[in-house]
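Two proteins, back to back. First:
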Amino acid sequence: MNRITARVKRYTRRKRSVRKSIFGAPSKPRLTVTRTGKNTYAQLIDDTSGCTLCSASTIEKEGKIEAGSNCAAAKSIGIRLAEKAKTVGIETVVFDRNGYRFHGRIKALAEGAREGGLKF
């Protein structure tokens, strides 16, 4: 097994263990985070109906962020997602770090969402 497949296996194992205990209800949806090399994505998901309530990312048409892979961009995504959640009527969420370690961009996005008014 090479380094890349070992890294992917560790990531999927972490993702499964985190996701096992988290469930998003309509009153308290799941805030899931995805990051790539260039961009960061966040969305609020209702797991009972399986639909996305609102989302924010660095590649949205309004407010596109050029450097989408840094902590400042992630923080602004968190703030933007919190604003969208308030318009939908959501105040509390369950944070799903999606197998990523809670540091860097993931931590910055969570701090931005908390600054925007989301509780978790």
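And the second protein:
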Amino acid sequence: MKQKTQLRWQQPLRKWVNAPLFERTIIALILINALILGLETDDTLVANFGTWFELGHHLILGAFIIEACLKICAVAPRLKQYFGDGWNLFDFSVIVLSLLPATGELAMIARLARLLRVLRLISALPELRLIVATLMRSIPSMGNIMLLMSIIFYIYAIAGYHLFHTNDPQHWGSLGLSLLSLFRIVTLEDWTDLMYTAMEAEPWAWIYFVSFVIMGTFVIINLFIAVVLENLAQSKAEQQAKRQQPVTHDELLKELVNTQQALASLRKQVEKMP
């Protein structure tokens, strides 16, 4: 009986915290918090409205605490459903850090915790959660691509040192400088200046630079994109599978009762027919 009473108030609460209006309200509070943090970078505004900014921080923090309490109550006593979700755990950690006093040695941590509240926008929007989940699951595959890219960088850096350090020691005078120059080339930021300087001493130097651009930029970056797109498709498939959850026992009983009531009503109408 106690469990049924618990379910009676938990089900409406669960629907309420998962309602679009509730989520939009939290998103609006996160955006207001981000706006206040941006306004606090202006000393004149802080001098005139600093008290109001501080009040806004406290009110928003209070709203986030209420949100966390409501979500925990909605799944109690099965707290694993709340803390087992990484996004809920992140939101709860941000709230705990925000409770630190904004004075003394912990002042900087408290200010950074306020800034972390803006990151809650990621957990509040399903589309952003999907993108972050895709990036996280892409990390193992990206590790192999990074290893391949490191080998290519290392080979080209040593070759660049031996080929161009005499003519252009500013960019190729050591292994470290050669790696930095290659990073500049792979970003396609004024890489032709390095090429033309090298071609003054070695006319065939363009082969070195063009081949590295093709290998480092076009091939490697496209491999990164391919990995992300593949994992994005897998994340979308998993998200759709979660949405298609099996019907619970309570929902099945409720549907059965509704069907029985509809059949009883239909039987009465049939009996009244001449």
